[in-house]
Amino acid sequence: MSRLEIIAVDGIGEITADTDLGALIAGLDLGDGDIVMVTSKVVSKAEGLVVTGDRDDAIAGETVRVVARRGPTSIVENHLGLVMAAAGIDASNVTPGQLVLLPRDPDASARRIREAVAAAGSNVAVLITDTAGRAWRNGQTDITIGAAGIDVLESLAGAVDGYGNPLAVTEPAIGDELAGAADLVKGKLSGRPVAIVRGLADRVLAPGDHGSGARAALRPRSMDMFALGSREAVVAAVAGRDSDCFGSAATAEELATALRSCGLAAEAGAAGVAGVAVESEDPRVDLVAFAHGWRRTADRPSALLPITTSRPANP
Rounded to whole angstroms, how far apart are CA atoms 150 and 14? Predict the structure, then answer.
């Protein structure tokens, strides 16, 4: 029988820029193999990332790329590579008028806390968590944005299940699963920003081995099938920008199928030729082609080639 225990820590108190968060956590009753879950907000407070000012200006300052916008709601990619509403900026649990930015390097923050605990005599893992929405589902859950001493992903590719089926892409998000579980005991309004997970000591890495950090869980834009919102994808195709958000170039057959589905005549190129021939000069051809990673060539407007191999040309 496996047993997992999650303990919310009482008495942390208000965290400010004068708080030595590492020393505070090192003073808790911790033992080897514990996993310390720390809400990002207290990390930000300890690192002096509470600001005042206009919320929209703050969001713009933290935004690398707008993913989707609907009315007052903006889903953006922030400087950490996280895709979050309002760039992860929060205005709760602070004085009205103040805003809390995310830590500048949550993995480094987690390492510092882990090293402080190690200096006090215990080998623990540290996860820094934040609340985020999820595509396709209502509600929010906590995710891991910083990690030290534990792998946030577990690759099971190549393993075989109990029925003899090989697993191909199974990769449990261990960090996020722990973040969500810890939030059940920490809560949002209880003033308990730290929790301790016990029962998973086998996942805690050896002293000095911090692991790959939470950044390992970030999906590259080129592999993200939803890197842009539906409206934003149309604008990007028309403007001929953000090509990396559409992923790697589609095959000639995929492009031809897409063009036909839009009523635009196309045929696959001859065998062995990496191209698609089009007769139409309809600008919609260029939009569909760009979204599939292809462009017209400058010297042969009737030919399309993958963007990575074609000569520069404006769609």
Answer: 28
Reference 129, options 172, 91, 174; nearest CA is: 174
Please give the pLDDT value at position 134: 87
**Domain locations in the chain?**
5-49+103-218, 230-306
Q: What is the pLDDT of residues 261-302, one digit of tens each?
A: 888 865 544 444 456 777 778 889 999 999 999 988 877 777
Q: Ramachandran region of residue 139, left (φ > 0), alpha (ψ -120 to 50) or beta?
A: left
Regarding the domain with residue range 5-49+103-218, which homologous superfamily does it belong to in the CATH classification? CofE-like (3.30.1330.100)
d(CA 118, CA 233): 47
Residue 35's DSSP bridge partners are 125, 197
Provide DSSP, the chain: ----EEEEPP------TT--HHHHHHTS---TT-EEEEEHHHHHHHTT-EEES-HHHHHHHHEEEEEEEETTEEEEEETTS-EEEGGG-B-SSS-TTEEEPPPS-HHHHHHHHHHHHHHTT---EEEEEEEEEETTEEEEEEEEEEEESS-S----TT-B-TTSPBPSS----HHHHHHHHHHHHH-SSSS--EEEEES-GGGSPPTT---S-GGGGPPPGGG-TTSS-HHHHHHHHHHT--GGGG-SPPPHHHHHHHHHHTT---EEPPTT---EE-----HHHHHHHHHTTEEE-SS-TTEEEETTTSPP---
Spatial distance between the Cα atoms of 276 and 251, rounded to a whole number of angstroms = 10
- Dump pLDDT digits (tens) for 70-104: 998 999 999 999 999 999 999 988 999 999 999 99
**Look-up: residue for tokens 């028309």?**
238
Residue identified by tokens 């808790």 is 28
C-alpha 12/C-alpha 287 separation (Å) is: 55
Report whether 268 contacts 276 (CB < 8 A).
yes
